[in-house]
Amino acid sequence: MLTGIFCAALLLAWGLNWFALIPWRRSLDDHWTERARRLYPAHVSARLNIWLIPATLVLGQKLILPEVQAAWFLTALCAWMGTLLGSFPFDREVIPELASFRVWLGLVIASWLLQFSVWILFVAGFIVMPERFSGQTMWIGCGLLIFHTWINLGLFLRLARLFRLLGPPPALLKLIVAQVSQRMGKPCRVWLLDSPVSYAAALPLTGDLIFSRRIVEVHPEAEIAAICAHEIGHLTEPRMTRVGRWVGSLKFFPWLFVKPVVNEFAFGGLATLAVSSALLTVFSLRLARRMEERADAVACDNQAAEGIYARALERLYETNQLPTVMPGNRKVHPHLFDRMVAAGVTPAYDRPKPPEHVAWTTFPLCVVIGIEIGIVLSHAEGTELKRLFHPDPSSSTSVQSPDWKLLSTHSFTNNPYTNSTSSESQR
Ligand SMILES: [Zn+2]
Fold this sequence. Notes:
By secondary structure, the protein is mainly α.
């Protein structure tokens, strides 16, 4: 049974990703900006598959084999592992440096171990959270708030080093960072991220910089120095901004209390959670966006010659096959096209159209999940919905039904303890 789920997830992931990449394959002779535009939706869909395919299979099993519902967690785990393994052909095709299965597997295991390490206490906190507000609610909330702060203040780095994702920088990178750091009067530590993707980040709350191996391999020294100036620009953010980053990183925290809040305040409580989470998200996004523009200006002021920073940005986006113009304007970083213009260089091509948000392959999955949820809720005879709008203290145990746990746990674990990384300033 579980082997079948694993194989079904693997084949679904492989097939859907293969279809999603067709437009990108057909753009082989186009300019890199067009290739990146075609790749973006396939990339987003491949990432969504990691959650959508297990959700489809878990709900499908619940409907087709209701007698084995108790094992839904094992089903989800097998489907998730199958989906991850089915993503290997996609990653290998898009990032040729990941051609070795051993290298790919090592990176995937290390990065998921890191994410699970910072998620697991929150998932546990959510599960053991009592149905009603009590002293235990406060202790769980305070404990996780301290843990979250610890992640932001250095635990994330320690774990990344433990899982060998981060290591000491090569001599050249160390020298470049030391020179820029001295010139800008801001001491910092630097780490090398073992990744085939070009990536650089600053952790303003700890004063650390991270550069990926790829960025060191691909960029000339002057461009690495310009990128370094951008990241050190983040380290010089005002104290209140750093506090704001920490507050914004709590955007998913309110959902920890969804069980007692729904029991005590029903739909009004749920709406309050959603609004507070949305407000924190908007706040953190706007703050991060302002800080990216500030760091870009700092990099321009500290580059060795006019245009170096703009070329570094362009090379980074080209290496990672990232679109020059993203869909929508709600990303942390401004569009590459605008960043280059702001850095004093007009790109040698017209402003490209933004890509689609997702590939078409995501829509069938969403439709199937929608139908499955509809059937599951109708089988529950509306009990869960009635409870949501008319809480009844005498029947609080019904909230613990598998349906409720399945749906709410899934949405909570979408809290990407990227919370912890939201204090990072990814380029
Ligand atoms: Zn940045």
